């Protein structure tokens, strides 16, 4: 998924929004690290982004299993949402518009006539405040916060957002995203957009990685990747990962690769297992749990000649994303679960990544 890079304008907006919110100060951008057992994770408050995830492989050799960059400035110029939190509404909104409570809202398109991941300057392109930072103890954690102003990228109402990253024993990384609508009803759909390669960020493509997605249905899309509003069974299609398959086993049946929303089986607001990824060569295993109804499976189809960490160049299918979220374009499909958050109510999105080793 690509975005428009508008760094200078972005910085102007950040300063302007700080003034609107009563402060002319811009939060300093930095790198923060959490460690627990064999797991080490680094973050930056630019986009509340995961910068690195270090884990041992089955031979005990440490490796970084997420794509990224060598400096914070590189993240400011990123065009692929690498590692960041995306919003106010993740994924696509058809026509960059919707109607809520009788009011028609026109948003800022950034993918043709549509909006992707919150617009030209979404939550991935702003500086988040570091509310808390606990480096050690039973559960090291960091809390990022961002106040989105009324009218930002065209969305109604002010929104207070927090993202908490926590490490727990057993090589578990938990992501808790919360949002409160302060004065108007507004759509909210946050997503964590890390690019995973369990073989190491510089190990080539992920076509040999084995994936299982616990979803019997997906939401078909049109030529612009906007959902049609229908649901389709995965059985008999290249989208069927109910049983484990390698990513490359059927990817050639798709035009570019995977970029589709799955309807997770049995999700009722409680934590459910959404997916499992295994890398046979390294032995690393990643299990993903969430309380969200959907998960976007994306095989980095748009990556091309992206200079990443240590000068390694990322290419298409160099990683995979599993973005738990509400369904794309829900604001324009009444039959999809609602993404509207009303004042006095709170949006809550939980992801748990559990890492282990298999022989």
UniProtKB/TrEMBL annotation:
Is Magnesium among this UniProt entry's keywords? no
Instruction: Write down what this protein is called.
Output: Aldose 1-epimerase
Tell me the InterPro entries matching this sequence: Aldose_1-epimerase, Aldose_1/G6P_1-epimerase, Gal_mutarotase_sf_dom, Galactose_mutarotase-like, GH-type_carb-bd
Q: Which organism is it from?
A: Gossypium arboreum (Tree cotton)
User: What reaction(s) does this enzyme catalyze?
Assistant: alpha-D-glucose = beta-D-glucose
- Leader sequence segment: none
Named in its record, the pathway it takes part in is: Carbohydrate metabolism; hexose metabolism
Entry's EC annotation: 5.1.3.3
Note the SUPFAM superfamilies from the entry. Answer: Galactose mutarotase-like
What are the UniProt keywords, alphabetically?
Carbohydrate metabolism, Isomerase
Gene Ontology terms for molecular function: aldose 1-epimerase activity; carbohydrate binding
The family classification in the record reads: Belongs to the aldose epimerase family.
Give the enzyme class.
isomerase
Q: Which domain of life is it from?
A: Eukaryota
Biological process GO annotation list? galactose catabolic process via UDP-galactose, Leloir pathway; glucose metabolic process
Transmembrane regions listed in the UniProt entry = none
